[in-house]
């Protein structure tokens, strides 16, 4: 546990700590009954780390990822991303951070079914306000990086599951985000395809990308240099391992 | 997201869902189509009435002194009629006094008409408008003589039995033969044809070329009026203001001739094209009043349909909205996307409505005597209305979409 800075409320994270959560909590009010999905998660992730998050179903992994990905706001605690305190930002500022700082890969791919691979990858750039030509060039480049340079004009239903997830990874990368988040990215794929996808993540990590990934499977987690385990909305273990 | 991007996206969605889009366009389409078609026809009528009716039939800058108005406007009651017919008629002396008394430059003509049958050999033309008039009548009506000549002041004074025919009447009686110098019979008296007036066309389907004009002092006077009485004295001035002046002078002369006291109303009528145009104005105003109602109903219906289609679209595309938000779309981006989509939808409907309305108006103009003339303002109003309906109908669905929570939206099946 010596990985972490001794952080107290009122402090600012050290410069190379890209993600810092301090006693982060998320409770859902289910009509009187309060579900405490996260009960105070304190976690620090440095630049260029590769972290796997594990834990039993319902332990709060997705809830944590959504908070880190700025898709959701905490009900308690602090969240610092890249030196900026995100936990008390407004709606539009969060949208901007999602657009610029975060690349999110979902279990279910979440591609626009009627749009081509290229257009799907272009989407974040549209909201970044880039011109059409630049968008095209950057999206094409991102598709090349995941090995789909020859599938740009294909629609999702013309692609295999693994190819679809690669399009989603290209989309997550296209804005050159500070962190790449993935919530069970291989959950809908067979083991061979999962292997290919893990190759892609591994390569990205080697190129300097910070990666945080939720997974159920130990052989997937084995690709990561650090494994954080959640249990009942709290960090149970946090271990470095040889990749 | 840039505005252009939003429009492109909207067109893409419309193209992808052709049937649904077409359905949602119908309301706006019908409203705008009616707007354009009705406005075009009313505008066409307007132009027609001003140019043809006022200009050709009555004469430009012209007024007529009559016993009572020729064109009865709207509500003429029985008692009004009785009062009118009890008025003294316009006599030769009245007409001469007025013609002599007007101090602005004008030309004047006597004018009396009836319906008559004209015959040439075995050919007959029934229900012809037969007019007894002064020689200057041709100037007042701006008639161009295409064959022969008009009669002279001399011929009028001497009551020479000559006649000038309308184009269609001449065709009917002579069928290609040269009409000049031939004798036509009117009530068993012979009139020599000396001229034919250039074709005038028709007014709302009625031919303007079935007439005959003879000198006021020729034997026609027996048939058109009691002795020494005329239907009207037509007075044509050079300008509108001179005409108004001449009218005032004519009124003063007539009032003094009739010994009217200041509080007595006129017992004669001074009629201008304005009365006719006023009458038409009333009709077109009624049409223009009914039009907004008609258009409004279709637009409201169209708006409701579009709103429902958009609500459906928001529901169907919840995941897409969640995804876009997760990739950095702000509320305003989503709001704009759906607003632009609704507006594009309605504007496309309006544009198709404009095109169809113009087509409909030209079709009506082609197959009926009604004229049509597309008013540019109606196109602008039509498209603007369509866009307005789109925005109004889009606001609620768009704001619902913009407020969606990204995680909840993404989780939806
Ligand atoms: N929107 C919500 N409303 C109410 N409760 C929720 C909501 N989202 C999550 N929860 C609850 O929070 C807890 C943590 O859920 P979360 O989805 O983070 O689990 P997870 O670790 O990702 O599980 P899994 O491995 O099955 O994906 C669960 O008890 C869940 O029921
Ligand atoms: Mg989960």
Summarize this structure briefly.
Chain A is α/β, with parallel strands linked by helices. Chain A contains seven helices and ten strands. Chain B has two domains: 3-52 and 278-411, no CATH class; 62-272, no CATH class.
Give structural notes.
The complex is a heterodimer of chains A (243) and B (413). Chain A has 243 residues and is of the alpha/beta class. Chain A has one domain: P-loop containing nucleotide triphosphate hydrolases (Rossmann fold, 3-Layer(aba) Sandwich). Chain A has seven helices and ten strands. In chain A, helix 3 (117-128) packs across helix 4 (132-145). Chain B has two domains: 3-52 and 278-411, no CATH class; 62-272, no CATH class. The mean pLDDT of chain B is 88. With 413 residues, chain B is of the alpha+beta class. The two termini of chain B are 26 Å apart. In chain B, a hairpin with a 2-residue loop joins strand 3 (106-120) and strand 4 (123-133). The chains are: A alpha/beta (243), B alpha+beta (413). Chain A binds chain B through residues 66, 69, 71-72, 91-92, 95-96, 98-100, 104, 106, 110, 112, 114, 123-124, 126-129, 171, 175, and chain B through 1-2, 5, 16, 319-320, 323-333, 406-407, 410. Bound molecules: adenosine-5'-triphosphate and magnesium ion (MG). The site of magnesium ion has 2 residues of chain A, from helix 1.
